[in-house]
Design a protein that fits this description.
- The protein is α/β, with parallel strands linked by helices.
- It is built from 7 helices and 12 strands.
- Strands 5-4-1-6 form a 4-stranded mixed β-sheet.
- α4 runs parallel beside α5.
Length: 243
């Protein structure tokens, strides 16, 4: 009787263990940034696929249970995984043109919040009075902007740009005319004329400069005019800034 009970318990334990272990996946992606596109826009580390079905999404540790002897495992090394099971309706060219504009990031904002965001954009990039000031990625859900709201924001934009233009004229009067001419030629091409050097990143185009070029920049004389190798903008080296 004892032998029978022991054998039954052993068989039950093995059966439960087998039931708990999931069937191996055909493909497992680890060490990545998996955009789940769920309600909270959460990110996961790993993904397991069997056939044409995603069978697991989670941490590297949780998805490791789906790795079998014939599973192909790909180390993403921090790269991004985007869903390919939805309509990829994107406008990359238009999105690139919107990078320098005032973006509200498609967030549901009330009129006072929009006004504050526009004010921050103006502070960072006031632009010239002759240029359009565009606000993009506006979420219209439940939003009502009155004529008074719009007139108020337009008045703020105009006043900020007037002050910026006046201050700019004062500063350029003290600069080397050749440097000002270079700045204006760069701006005439459609890009920023100058941008601060922020670590290894150009503040104009936001692209990181390679280490070889950064070595040359670090060794340059204080009065040498340096330009971003990517966008051509004049690089502003701020004393005391972290390189």
């Amino acid at each position: 009787m004892t032998r029978y009970v022991f054998g039954a318990l052993s068989a039950l334990t093995l059966g439960l263990a087998a039931a708990a272990a999931p069937a191996p996946a055909d493909l497992v992606l680890i060490h990545g940034k998996v955009h789940t596109e769920d309600a909270s826009r959460s990110l996961a580390q790993a993904l397991a696929i069997r056939g044409n079905t995603i069978v697991a999404v989670g941490t590297d540790e949780s998805v490791a249970a789906f790795v079998g002897p014939n599973t192909r495992t790909v180390d993403l090394g921090g790269r991004v995984v985007l869903p390919g099971i939805i309509d990829a309706h994107t406008h990359p060219a238009q999105s690139a043109q919107d990078l320098g504009k005032c973006s509200l990031d498609d967030k549901a904002l009330a009129p006072p919040e929009i006004k504050n965001r526009v004010a921050l954009c103006l502070k960072e990039r006031p632009g010239e009075r002759s240029q359009w000031f565009e606000v993009v990625m506006v979420n219209p859900s439940g939003l009502t902007l009155t004529l008074a709201d719009l007139d108020g924001m337009l008045a703020d934009i105009d006043q900020t740009r007037r002050l910026h233009s006046s201050r700019r004229d004062e500063l350029t009067a003290a600069l080397d005319p050749e440097l000002v001419a270079l700045y204006e030629r760069q701006r005439a091409g459609g890009g920023p004329g100058a941008g601060p050097l922020q670590g290894r990143r150009c503040g104009a185009c936001r692209i990181e400069i390679d280490r070889g070029e950064m070595s040359r920049i670090s060794a340059a004389a204080d009065d040498e005019v340096l330009r971003c190798p990517e966008c051509g903008a004049i690089l502003l080296r701020v004393k005391g800034a972290t390189q």
